[in-house]
Amino acid sequence: SCTWQKFLCGGRCIFGPDANSIYLSVSLIMTPLALFVAFVSFRLAELMGKPLGPFIPRTAMAVGAFDLIVLVLTSGRDPGIVPRNTKPPDPEDLQLDGMASPMAGAPSSGTLPPTRDVYVNGMVVKVKYCHTCMLYRPPRCSHCSVCNNCVERFDHHCPWVGQCIACREITGSSSCSSRRRRSFASTCSCSAG
Ligand SMILES: [Zn+2]
Ligand SMILES: [Zn+2]
After folding, report:
1. What is the average per-residue pLDDT within 143-154?
2. How confident is the model at residue 168 (pLDDT cuts 50, 70, 90)?
3. Which of 41, 123, 129, 146 has the smallest number of Cβ neighbours within 10 A?
4. What are phi and psi of 107, to 5 degrees?
5. Residue range 48-63: average pLDDT?
6. Which domain holds residue 177?
7. Mean of the per-residue pLDDT values for the chain?
8. Which ligand is nearest to the CA of 136?
9. What amino acid positions are annotated as catalytic residues?
């Protein structure tokens, strides 16, 4: 039921619904870079002479290639989408699963409470129910309105790469529960892309 995303390479690549904006981003980066390489860098290389001169156009082209790779990798990777449920959870099961307690004053049966208390490292965390994905969002998970999916450790939706910036971009790992977080994350993801 995830009709919004574009899947490529047998589901290994997941692009957001606005992934075409990557073409604009690429042209905005590559046009000035190509002009620099074509009309400036070789003249600079001549002026500077050997041994450092030839590195000017090479470095410019390498930076361009690296930018392109990072942009496509960011745009095409699963940011940490939480798989949707096909049917809402059973209110009876919620009380049995032990890890959470129903909110005080919530209807005892039949309807799903809008929030649940979940214990994380001995602390009580309120988690909200997502009606679109039919699940209780894990802590720090948010629903992206552009992708129409719940995304773990959601930071923001980046229009330049057409993808959510979330745990997988930040940690670079495939396991989103990993604690290897980098603090420069939210500022670097967009500027690198
Ligand atoms: Zn959701
Ligand atoms: Zn998104």
Report:
1. 93
2. low
3. 123
4. -55, 140
5. 94
6. 91-192
7. 79
8. 1
9. 158
